[in-house]
């Protein structure tokens, strides 16, 4: 559905953009024919020396090295739209807006994000989210081809083992699981590893984690020097080996994986699809009154799209540090990870941050070091260590 919206947007923008007026070629006026006398040599030299106002002496052609004379510039406004074009735009906008309202009413639902308790509205169903994630993940694997490391590769085994700790901690903390089956190789052996079976502790209701039913967690490692991790809906995660080169300890890798698992738990992909659908509806509506598609696209992107994306990243940071602590990793490593990421990517200026999908590393670090966040994470970390000690005994 997200791909459909991206494909429809330029097409409808082209329909809403008025066509330029057809230019008619006007033939140049006929050049006046000049007649030249055949003066004597003496008269010719005199004329060249001091030509009179009515002299018909031919001027010498301009030198090729002479400075070019700037041509006059003509500024013209866009052709006003006709009434028929405005009617067509209104019809298209009406169809798009009505369709968006119908989708919102039929499929929209309010949900609560675990850990942050934020209420958000999504229009993508749980089954639709799983299908979307499977499709995106399979397409990525086809494009990557041989760059995907085998499940038996040491890097793949290591990353899957760390991811299993994070996913298992999410299952226990959200749904009260104590004996979840985790990742087996590339995929999760139990499709409902995060399914609610018991009453969730810490106030997590069954509705908050209902969408985790049917999640098929899968983590693959790609041989690529890029320092990056991707997360598709439904628990599909892609890790690049460039990240493993920059972060050597398991705790650092766990902090990054906790952030990606948080995106899946919070259903950020479904929420982002919902926001983009509304932004697209707003863009089509504004094009009726403002004949500037490029300007409207930039305004909606910088005022609505990018701020929303940064908000999702901050929320994933918050959930991720809680998952990190619940898995038994020291949560104090998370702020250091984002400091290192800032050095790898280069510390961005406020202007660059405003034009980016992610907040700057300094801001992310400060938010994680906040006393309320860190104290809560340390409490989860203490519980996790005590639980591990009991298991070892």
From TrEMBL:
Gene3D superfamilies for the chain: Metalloproteases ('zincins'), catalytic domain (3.30.2010.10)
Keyword Transferase: no
TM ranges: 88-110, 277-296
Domain of life: Eukaryota
One of the Pfam families matching this protein, by short name: Peptidase_M48
Signal listed as a keyword: no
Swiss-Prot/TrEMBL GO biological process terms: proteolysis involved in protein catabolic process
Names of the cofactor(s): Zn(2+)
CC cofactor note: Binds 1 zinc ion per subunit.
One annotated GO molecular function: metal ion binding
One cellular component (GO) term of this entry: membrane
Keywords in alphabetical order: Hydrolase, Membrane, Metal-binding, Metalloprotease, Protease, Transmembrane, Transmembrane helix, Zinc
Region ranges (Disordered): 16-80
InterPro entries: Mito/Outer_Membr_Metalloprot, Peptidase_M48
Database matches in CDD domains: M48C_Oma1_like (cd07331)
Pro residues bias locations: 59-70
Domain (Peptidase M48) ranges: 207-368
Family that this chain belongs to: Belongs to the peptidase M48 family.
Protein name: Peptidase M48 domain-containing protein
Classification lineage: Eukaryota, Viridiplantae, Streptophyta, Embryophyta, Tracheophyta
């Amino acid at each position: 559905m997200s791909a459909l919206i991206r494909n429809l947007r330029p097409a409808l923008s082209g329909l809403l953009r008025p066509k330029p007026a057809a230019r008619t070629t006007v033939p140049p006026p006929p050049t006046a024919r000049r007649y030249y006398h055949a003066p004597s040599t003496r008269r010719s030299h005199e004329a060249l020396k001091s030509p009179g106002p009515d002299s018909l002496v031919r001027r010498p052609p301009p030198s090729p090295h002479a400075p070019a004379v700037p041509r006059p510039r003509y500024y013209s406004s866009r052709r006003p739209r006709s009434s028929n074009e405005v009617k067509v735009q209104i019809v298209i906008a009406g169809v798009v807006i009505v369709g968006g309202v119908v989708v919102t009413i039929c499929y929209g639902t309010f949900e609560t994000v675990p850990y942050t308790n934020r209420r958000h509205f999504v229009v993508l169903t749980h089954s639709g989210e799983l299908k979307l994630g499977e499709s995106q993940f399979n397409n990525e694997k086809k494009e990557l081809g041989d760059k995907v490391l085998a499940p038996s590769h040491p890097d793949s085994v290591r990353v899957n083992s760390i991811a299993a700790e994070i996913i298992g901690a999410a299952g226990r903390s959200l749904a009260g699981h104590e004996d979840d089956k985790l990742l087996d190789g590339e995929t999760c052996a139990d499709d409902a590893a995060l399914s609610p079976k018991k009453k969730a502790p810490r106030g997590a209701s069954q509705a908050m984690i209902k969408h985790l039913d049917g999640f098929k967690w899968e983590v693959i490692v790609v041989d690529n020097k890029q320092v990056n991790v991707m997360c598709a809906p439904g628990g599909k995660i892609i890790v690049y080996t460039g990240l493993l080169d920059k972060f050597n300890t398991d705790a650092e890798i766990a902090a990054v994986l906790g952030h990606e698992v948080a995106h899946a738990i919070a259903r950020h992909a479904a929420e982002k699809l919902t926001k983009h659908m509304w932004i697209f509806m707003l863009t089509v509506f504004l094009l009726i009154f403002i004949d500037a598609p490029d300007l409207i696209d930039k305004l909606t992107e910088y005022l609505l799209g990018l701020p929303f994306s940064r908000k999702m990243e901050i929320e994933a940071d918050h959930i991720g540090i809680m998952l990190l602590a619940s898995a038994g990793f020291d949560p104090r490593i998370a702020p250091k990870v984002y400091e290192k990421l800032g050095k790898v990517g280069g510390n961005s200026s406020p202007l660059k941050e405003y034009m980016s999908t992610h907040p700057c590393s300094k801001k992310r670090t400060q938010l994680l070091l906040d006393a309320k966040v860190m104290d809560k994470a340390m409490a989860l970390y203490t519980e996790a260590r005590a639980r591990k000690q009991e298991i070892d005994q």
